Amino acid sequence: MTQPIFILPEDYKRTLGKDAQRNNIMAAKQVAEAVRTTLGPKGMDKMLVDSLGDITITNDGVTILEEMGIEHPAAKMIVEVAKTQETQVGDGTTTAVTFVGELLKNAESLLDKEIHPTVITKGYRLAAEKSQEILDQLAEKITEKDEDILKKIAITAMTGKGAESAKEKLAEIAIKAIKQVIEEDKTINLDNIKLEKKTGNGVSDTELIQGIVLDKERVHSGMPKKVEKAKIALINSALEIKSTETDAKISISDPSQLQKFIEQEEEMLKEMANKIIKSKAKIVICQKGIDDLVQHFLAKEGIYAVRRAKKSDLEKLARATNAKIINNLNEITEDYLGEATAEEKIINDEGMTFITDCKNPKAVTIIIRGGTEHVVDEVERAIRDALGDISATLKTEKATAGAGSIEIELSLRLREYANKLSGREQLAVLAFADSLEIIPRTLAENSGFDPIDVLTELKSAHEKNKWAGLDVFTGKIVDAWEQGIIEPLRIKTQAIKSASEVAELILRIDDVIASSGGKDDTSQTHPGMPGMPEM
Q1: Residue range 391-417: average pLDDT?
Q2: In terms of CATH architecture, what is 147-210+367-396?
Q3: Is residue 502 a contact partner of residue 100, using CB atoms and an 8 Å limit?
Q4: For 464-517, how does the pLDDT look when each residue is reduced to its tens digit (9 = 90+)?
Q5: Nearest to 437 by CA among 93, 95, 25
Q6: What φ, ψ does residue 339 adopt, rounded to 5°?
Q7: Across all residues in the chain, what is the average pLDDT?
Q8: What is the pLDDT of residues 80-95, one digit of tens each?
Q9: Per-residue pLDDT for 131 more than 80?
């Protein structure tokens, strides 16, 4: 008898061929199904409870997937699609995940017809490339001056989220914030817009501060509560005596030496305070600690000081006040100082420092308010989506209508393109076109309308109008652009790019080898064959 050869350790599991493909497709479909019900203004929310009992209530795709703690390897790849969409655009995560689930579902029926996975992936690649071309042709040109359209884009991003009650005001805040931080070369860094959350009051009390809000109070009660239009110093070094970096001992033989030592320390601290006083700075924001004695000297001179500010806040303050960050106190001169007003305000029994009156600040703060912590968190996610959408629109200067209109138009044009292809790739391109219809179909389902009726009406309306979309509140077919349902082109291009690439990757997998872990493979031997390691 021939001896069986084991190439894998005992604790490994292996799934081959069609079983592996079906398994991966099933996992991807389940992930897509989990977030599908949250799509659109009538989408429902999910309540996620973690192991500690903390609750998150949201309909934001990427937040749901991150909190779910998904284990399946193919499902994790779908979560990556959502994360990429979030980092690149800031919105459209549910669209991307729903689309990739439908691509794999339609690929499954092609696999049942004995079409090879590489043929399907080639067709999907062709369809994705053609989609980018068609989208670019369909999109409308938008510039910074089209404030009305930018506002509609922000409102579209927030519709259906927890911020809907005050979406008009929040949209205006988002546009003002973006316009304030946009650079001359049109680049936008959303890190320069700080979001500070505070419970209490209503969502409509959210406000934009033309400057930076620090979650810190002044260090000394003797300091003024408000310093108007004064010089501000941003210090990155400690305003206290640092202990030596190497181990050192100080020998004192009589009490007078100890007194001299104390006096010397006080002198050094006084010198630190004097350097700041001489520079004529009236506001000091320090990243490290401030000694009690230095606090006393600064308070005597009416200087407002804050200690242990975050590094990121210090960098934002530099952009807002035009001050330079000082790493060495000996360098402090008027050239390093900026100009601003500092004021301490009490919000929810907590002291906060407002740095305002900045000249053309390139970093701003949005203070988000809401009745409870969960409301504030959801409003923050909605504002992030709005900021991401406005930023994405201004980067490409192109936008499309939403309400499922762009997907139907793209689907119809891809079908025309598929008819020009010969070979089995044509079937994959048609499957891709069918997959796009999942977005308007889901919008209809989530709004309580018959998806088949809606899709047939939409397709006939597209013969005359490329922006014909579904009004989820009435169930009627409307001109989505005129109704103000507008989205950045980048949401669609990124979603199609990420979804098609991941679908292709999953379809090419025909062998899944998984370790259950726990053993060191190299030391394993086969039973009955002492000393013979596994191959």
Answers
A1: 83
A2: 2-Layer Sandwich (3.30)
A3: yes
A4: 887 888 887 887 888 888 888 888 888 888 888 888 888 888 777 766 666 655
A5: 95
A6: -135, 135
A7: 77
A8: 777 787 777 767 778 8
A9: yes
Cβ neighbourhood burial of 45 (10 Å; 0-12, 13-18, 19+): middle
pLDDT band at 248 (very low <50, low <70, confident <90, very high): low
* Whole-number pLDDT of residue 531: 38
- Cβ neighbours around 3 below 10 Å, total: 9
Asked whether 515 and 8 are in contact (CB, 8 A), the reply is: no
Q: Kindly list the distances between the CA atom of residue 185 and the CA atoms of 52, 386, 395, in Å, as whole numbers in the listed order.
A: 46, 22, 10
Mean pLDDT of 116-130: 84
- CATH superfamily, domain at 212-245+261-360: GroEL (3.50.7.10)
What is the structure's pLDDT at 15? 61
Residue 533 has pLDDT above 60, yes or no: no
254 catalytic? Reply is no
Smallest CA-to-CA distance from 390 within 204, 166, 131, 156 is with 156
User: What is the reported pLDDT for 164?
Assistant: 66
pLDDT of residue 519: 42
Among 117, 96, 116, 322, smallest CA distance to 231 is for 322
Contact status, residue 48 vs residue 70, Cβ threshold 8 Å: no
Task: Give residue limits of the domains in the chain.
Answer: 18-141+400-512, 147-210+367-396, 212-245+261-360
What backbone torsions phi and psi does residue 533 show, to the nearest 5 degrees? -70, 160
Question: Of residues 60, 313, 377, 471, which has the active-site annotation?
Answer: 60
Q: Is the pLDDT of residue 243 over 70?
A: no
Q: Is 94 a catalytic residue?
A: yes
pLDDT in tens, 354-401: 888 877 778 888 888 877 777 788 788 888 888 888 888 888 888 888
DSSP states of 400-469: EETTTHHHHHHHHHHHHHHHT--STHHHHHHHHHHHHTHHHHHHHHHTTS-HHHHHHHHHHHTTT-TTEE
May I ask the CATH architecture of the domain 18-141+400-512? Orthogonal Bundle (1.10)
Among the options 385, 389, 393, 442, which is catalytic? 385
User: 58: part of which helix (H) or strand (E)?
Assistant: strand 55-58
Q: Which of 93, 95, 98, 156 is catalytic?
A: 93
User: Which among 58, 84, 94, 393 is annotated as catalytic?
Assistant: 94
Diameter over CA atoms, the chain: 100
Q: Is 60 a catalytic residue?
A: yes
The answer to whether 203 touches 379, Cβ cutoff 8 Å, is yes
For residue 287, report the phi and psi dihedrals to the nearest 5 degrees.
Answer: -80, -25
Among all chains, which residue has been given the structure tokens 């860094």? Answer: 189
What the block records as the tokens of 259 is 């007194």
